[in-house]
Amino acid sequence: xxxxxxxxxxxxxxxxxxxxxxxxxxxxxxxxxxxxxxxxxxxxxxxxxxxxxxxxxxxxxxxxxxxxxxxxxxxxxxxxxxxxxxxxxxxxxxxxxxxxxxxxxxxxxxxxxxxxxxxxxxxxxxxxxxxxxxxxxxxxxxxxxxxxxxxxxxxxxxxxxxxxxxxxxxxxxxxxxxxxxxxxxxxxxxxxxxxxxxxxxxxxxxxxxxxxxxxxxxxxxxxxxxxxxxxxxxxxxxxxxxxxxxxxxxxxxxxxxxxxxxxxxxxxxxxxxxxxxxxxxxxxxxxxxxxxxxxxxxxxxxxxxxxxxxxxxxxxxxxxxxxxxxxxxxxxxxxxxxxxxxxxxxxxxxxxxxxxxxxxxxxxxxxxxxxxxxxxxxxxxxxxxxxxxxxxxxxxxxxxxxxxxxxxxxxxxxxxxxxxxxxxxxxxxx
Length: 430
Ligand code: 2PG
Ligand code: MG
Known about the structure:
Elements: E1 5-16, E2 22-32, E3 38-44, H1 70-86, H2 94-105, H3 115-133, H4 137-142, E4 151-158, E5 171-175, H5 182-202, H6 222-235, E6 245-249, E7 256-258, E8 261-264, E9 271-272, H7 274-287, E10 290-294, H8 302-312, E11 317-320, H9 328-337, E12 342-345, H10 347-350, H11 353-365, E13 369-373, H12 383-390, E14 394-397, H13 404-421
Parallel strand pairs: 4-14, 6-10, 10-11, 11-12, 12-13, 13-14
Antiparallel strand pairs: 1-2, 2-3, 4-5, 5-6, 7-8, 8-9
Helix pairs in contact: 1-2, 1-3, 2-3, 5-6, 7-8, 9-11, 12-13
Bound molecules: 2-phosphoglyceric acid and magnesium ion.
The site of magnesium ion (MG) has 6 residues, from loops.
């Protein structure tokens, strides 16, 4: 391979995420061997709200030690352990870069240098390559094939670990399935978001925001939240099920059970056996236009997932987030067992761009839908917007349009759509 964009420096630093928590940023500087020009790429790693059991191990500051040494250590690891093996590497050889990162770490779960340190460098390398080649990031990552605009999934009510309200379901999303461009989809979602704000406000309910920009009112049941959203969709002039559908991220892995009850809602304290919970989801899908159910069961409940997939996969998307943790190995297990029919793609769950792309490829090969996703702790970095278009994931969830770190992704998609399609934008049929 012709080598002419060589890595000269990699650096790490501690910056902040949207929860005011430290996170890792990396910069990768490359030299063009023909004209000697230096170009810098950059990436910030987002943070989950406590990582799932199967995610790659990040080095962070836990509990109250928000300003502790964890993230600083991960950031320092970049210069200390990655500068030397990466120096001189051709930056467009992403597989090789990611291989070097894995070798330098040397552990199964990326715990020595930290998956956050590795991912920051992996993504910043791609950013540097795109900039040095003077092509947009989505085009660098996807070539001429990456050109499908994803349908946005906006979490407009937040609960669970993302808000200190009464709701146990983590995300209540709207999905503009009938929109024929990202611009139109974003516009529809914003209209519904504003109508919902007024509905809640008129009822004297809080319109304060959760971590992903959705409203976080105290309601007595999850159904009440869904009914408010249905009202908002209709009051904004859209037809539920035709123009706009509803998606939930249950994050049921956090509903730790007691005794013979496998699942207990941590806030409302209602408990269910796996069988009862599956019945709840089946009833929900028959009553509302449910586009997808993410993590409706726990990440180790393979039997439950298998049964739910048989029962519901013709009617809705069953999305594995904590279940697959963006890992090709975990997804492969799911494919063999017939568990779920869609996978959430969060690069920081696995720790390198190459492995993230491998999970998307595997999913597509086996008929699983793919959803590119932010984390609850985000930043102004909009890499995932470009990656969604590059990999033709078809769907993206990036929170509500009420916080800058979420709009960073939607705004980037609006720019990409304009560049790719101009006035005649077209999105994938969900
Ligand atoms: C999820 C993610 C993103 P967190 O569960 O899908 O919404 O949340 O980053 O808190 O894991
Ligand atoms: Mg999730």
